[in-house]
Amino acid sequence: MQIWNRRHFLKTAAAVSAATVAASRAVAATGKNVFLLTPEQEPARPVAANDHIQIALIGAGGQGMYDTSEAIQVPGVKLVAVADCYNGRLERSKELWGADTFTTRDYNEILARKDVDAVIIGTPDHWHKQASIDSMKAGKDVYCEKPMIHIYSDGPAMIETAKTSNRIIQIGSQRVSSIIYAKAKDLLASGAIGKLNMVTARWDRNSSMGAWNYTIPPDASPETCDWPRFEGTAPKIPFSAERFFQWRKWKDYGTGVAGDLFVHLFSGTHFITGSHGPTQGMATGGLRYWKDGRDALDVVLGLFDYPQAFNLSLRVNFVDGGDESEGLLFTGDEGTMEIGGGWVSINRVPREKDPGLTIDTFPKAMQAQIEAEHAKKYPRQHPEGAPAAGFEKFVAPDGYSDSYDHFKNFFASVRSRKPVVEDAVFGYRAAGAALLSNLSIQKKEVIKWDPEEMKLLS
Ligand SMILES: NC(=O)c1ccc[n+]([C@@H]2O[C@H](COP(=O)([O-])OP(=O)(O)OC[C@H]3O[C@@H](n4cnc5c(N)ncnc54)[C@H](O)[C@@H]3O)[C@@H](O)[C@H]2O)c1
Asked: In this structure, what CATH number is given to the domain that contains residue 207?
């Protein structure tokens, strides 16, 4: 076993991180072994006028509006148009981004505009495929929110269109651009926790909002909401304000906790480990508390195999009965690495080389003989010095936004035409893995998946 040594570790970590991100520096005020990560600086080169990128937003709900507010902070990026199915959100878009912002219920009007270079797709999951494909075919680059797919056949169709249209598509799992996840990737690669054997992650909530019960506006009606357009390919039913504004609760539009939250945990795990995905997944779950007419479960546990590498266990609980918490724990044979909101920490408690003795039950003379041999083999003075326990925490600066970095990376690719950090293949591998949980629960079976070919095998 290699005894961990901080200098060695920082050196190797720095060597790996050169390719990805940021130096770290100690934070004197917050104590020993806590380091503040420094985000990459903006490129020194000023953005030329003809480098301007004009964007439009398709789906201006909570995430679409948040995404846009981050995206337009990237130098040289301007919003010109918004499409949404609810009048109130079109009105709000003009309040936020100016009365001259073009708004429409029909995103095709946006795709027909020559002054739109790229679109952000913040629709419910069941529209991701169609809106992305229509946008790419209209010559627009695409930032599509996670989960990339609603059903498995969405994945190959989106990948194929990205190829044939030669458009950039980035999926919106922002952790892939996070300095915290980049640091975690470096730490793992540098051997900070030894050889990885297990990843466990959780995303627990304990609130009505956390369980997707978003506010329904008082004017919600078939007049203010374009219900047929919202429904798209979903089964046709009469207008339901609840389904319109709280769509995650129904499989017709959403992908359950698997597509909403597991997918972030998969994206993070795949980014950090470089893995393409599990070969099989199994899940169990139930509707334990939010029995309000929804058909999506509020408790889901999933287990996934990454052969020759590690095992993954994921959990989402919308009724955790206490402190809401989320995070990932990577376990290696020399330590653990934990990721929380805005930080990553390493904890090493190396095993003693001396295996110890359990000899009390043996005859006295034999005990003495074993002890003498043991003392020769494992002298008191450890040849490599006392095993070094270690704890280090790397923290993102206040106000750090991985969403901003994800957009910065996206627009860099839009300009350079170089590959994005999270393309449709990465997005499909993450979402395809996540949705194994839904299939497993539905079929009550272990579901096999080929992560290289991105194909269901059962
Ligand atoms: N990356 C993240 O951390 C993150 C966080 C939250 C949500 N999301 C994702 O963002 C997406 C949107 O989630 P949300 O919470 O903003 O939902 P939301 O309900 O607040 O917003 C969705 C909007 O899409 C509009 N819409 C529906 N069909 C449309 C169509 N055909 N054309 C134009 N607009 C249409 C709706 O009118 C609605 O305003 C989801 O896929 C979700 O998984 C990602």
From this structure: 3.30.360.10
